[in-house]
Amino acid sequence: MRHKIHLSTTQTIMCSFLLAILVGSVLLALPVSAANGRAVPYIDALFTATTSVCVTGLVTVPTVSAWSVFGQAVILILIQIGGLGVITILTGLLIGLHRRIGIGDRMLIQDSFNLNTLSGIVKFIRKVLVGTFVVEGVGALFYMTVFVPEYGARGIWISVFNAVSAFCNAGMDILSEDSLCGYAMNPVVNLVTCLLIVFGGIGYIVWWDVVRVWLDRKRLHGRCLRSLTLHSKIALSVTAFLILSGAAAFLLFEYDNPLTMQAYTLPEKLMASVFQSVTTRTAGFATIPQQNLTNASAIVSLLLMFIGGSPVGTAGGVKTVTIAVLLVFAFAAIRNREDAELFHRTIPKHAVSKAVAVVCMSFLIMFTATVLLSACTDASALDIAYETVSATATVGLTRNLTPTLNSLGKLIIIVTMYLGRVGPISLVIAFHTRKENSNIIKEPTEEISVG
Fold first, then answer.
1. 124 found inside a domain
2. CB 3.0–4.6 Å: which of 64, 123, 262, 393 could bond 258 by disulfide?
3. Domain assignment of residue 399, given as a range
4. pTM of the predicted model, to two decimals?
């Protein structure tokens, strides 16, 4: 008898990312993908495909020198697929071919973007695709003002690659082996990269909400900020707070560090501090060698990487809204209040439960990866934690540990990046196929002591 395999929407999304990684690894393992014409080891091809699809940015071989133009093109396509999602790309192709989007496809899109409704799914995908390509295109044009005069015609390819990588929060570049350290004092490269990272990481829902309010600004009579949805208010306010507070921390801790910013002027120190604060929000570009940071700055970076960007965007991490919900709920519990409120709105209980689950599962993945990687490398605890947090939150920053990993260490980071990209909750849901019976008899409740 023939048995059809029925996958849930979550399992389909996870399998789509896995398939993209495997196909990409095969293409990158071909001799034509290597700069010297000799195929790279498959483990490095698999690692590169994973870091591209998972828009992480950790690399075991330099992107600029190890891969041919064909290999770099494969990486760029994988980054774009990873940033938007395989389901989004396929749906965009169906829309372009004027094919009907069925209810199953709509449910896939809903789960892949973590949306609360099926209404307006097709319109949402159209806006996502158009908005993405417009922002990436504008970013590439601004990059060209720097890279074309310096690299000639190749500067166009560099600009396009960097724009897609920055918007998708991938952190990979084809400029040099030390990321953007050579452009630490270039205001155009710094500003464009930061804006692309923020636009990609703030989330598409916030995009359209801000556009809606802007178009209705005359009717709103100065109440634009209050007219934003609760999600947008949280995402924008937490993002602004983390960028500013992170920049202030880096400025303080690196101000007199001779290995980083001691020789910089004050404006240069401000620019470098803001860039470090933004890039730790899962982007992975670096204008300062991460191994040269003070321990205090490295710990701040760990926190910012773990939090990441905002939901329904290209960023990773546990997300800004998740952390805000947890903190508000914690302070409400301290004040013996049953409901958690933010911006004069009550946070739904299911949002609090999901936030707790996301943080706990992400921490479990990060902790497990840290222990396993510690067992197979002699690096310092800080360097290992930096690597695993970066992989879990799909950031891509490293204290120069990634290129030194052995095969087992590479496999650990590959799995960690994949789990970080698909999401810890998706992983649990994918393997929990049994439906809970709403009529099941519950066990008796008993009080316990907490804290």
1. yes
2. 262
3. 9-429
4. 0.88
